[in-house]
Amino acid sequence: MTSDTMMAIVTEGVGDYDQLVHREVPRPDPGPGEVLLRVLAAGVNNTEINTRVGWYSASVTTGTEDTSSGAEESASRTDGGWNAATPFPLIQGADCCGRVVAVGPDGDEGLVDARVLVRACMRTNGFDPAGPGAETSDVMETRWLGSDFDGAFAQFVVVPAGEVFTVDCDWTDAELATIPCAYGTAENMVQRAGVHSGSTVLVPGASGGVGSALVQLLKRRGATVIGIASEAKHERVLALGTDRVLGRDADVVKALGQQSVDVVIDNVAGAGFPAMLMVLRRGGIYVSSGAIGGPAVDLDLRTMYLSDLTLIGCTAWDEPVFASVIDAIESGEIRPLLEKTFPLEEIADAQREFLTKGHVGKFALIPAP
């Protein structure tokens, strides 16, 4: 390897773990308005697995775990990326903790040597997602690190200078790498739902990366939080501040009662979706940015309209979201949930273990220095 190259995990296409190739590639150079980062640590997320197996394809109706195997079938899902077709070969990795090693022409040299987090959801226009009554043209266009262009599963990555955020804290690099995707996604949903002190919020999948982030960010606002998680994880989920935890197989309506919560923030979906709407109070809000339990759900429109429910889909992050997450780190209001680290070249082992769902929080990959 020379000074002009680096080692990276290149996802060659849709398929099984053999699509993850650890090889030498050209090291990128920062252009105007960009910075070059040495990747210190990169988080592991559902979305990288989903993209590799083509889970976002309209032909897929099962959950992430059911779709993660079957290389021959997944290879046919050419529309399986976030924006139809993923630009393979691609260096994935949405979560990046890095150190600035160079800036583009006329860039701010003061950024060099700063340890930063990268905002994974990047704006391409000046608008935020549309609120009630907004024009369709006001919806923000976004580009995602590691999905629309090369990401953090490498020794170096180039990103826009405006998308790096310095963080004043004593966390390790790997701990910081657990933050961007999970906590940015969680904070976006919390803000969109208008959660406040006094809100009662139900969080299915409370032990996962986004779920455990939600618990902390909801308690930051003074909400009452009810989590759903496997019984083996209840103690750890309660330790995050959850007020009550139900088992994964619990009858949610029987346990909580109909019209008993103000907000449901649900990245599980699947067969449990109808119960999520039944426990919402009149005028309640259901928010989702994922469907690891399955994207095809049964929706009785009468449940929705007779109770004046609002259903919100969240992908693009509102402008204040990531800055709010950084503030929460620096003020000590949240803490990292790093379950385990792996060398970058062991990404396949990391994803296999990730899919067993035996962990609480996140895994991180560490590139060679």
Can you give a write-up of this model?
- The protein is an alpha/beta fold and 369 residues long.
- The protein is built from 12 helices and 17 strands.
- Helix 5 crosses helix 6 and helix 5 crosses helix 11.
Q: Brief description of this entry?
A:
The protein is α/β, with parallel strands linked by helices.
Mean pLDDT level:
91
The radius of gyration over CA amounts to 20 Å
* Percentage of β-strand residues: 15-25%
Number of strands: 17
Count of individual helical segments: 12
Largest sheet: 7 strands, mixed
Share of helix among residues? 10-25%
Low-confidence stretches: 126-137
Shape: globular
Features:
six-stranded parallel sheet, 369 residues, alpha/beta, 24% helix, 17 strands, globular, single chain, seven-stranded mixed sheet
Secondary structure elements and pairings:
Blueprint: E1 5-11, E2 20-26, E3 34-43, H1 46-53, H2 64-67, H3 71-74, E4 97-103, E5 115-118, E6 121-123, E7 142-144, E8 156-160, E9 164-166, H4 173-176, H5 180-193, E10 200-204, H6 209-220, E11 224-228, H7 234-239, E12 244-246, H8 252-256, E13 261-265, H9 273-278, E14 280-288, H10 301-306, E15 310-313, H11 320-330, E16 338-343, H12 347-355, E17 362-366
Helix pairs in contact: 5-6, 5-11
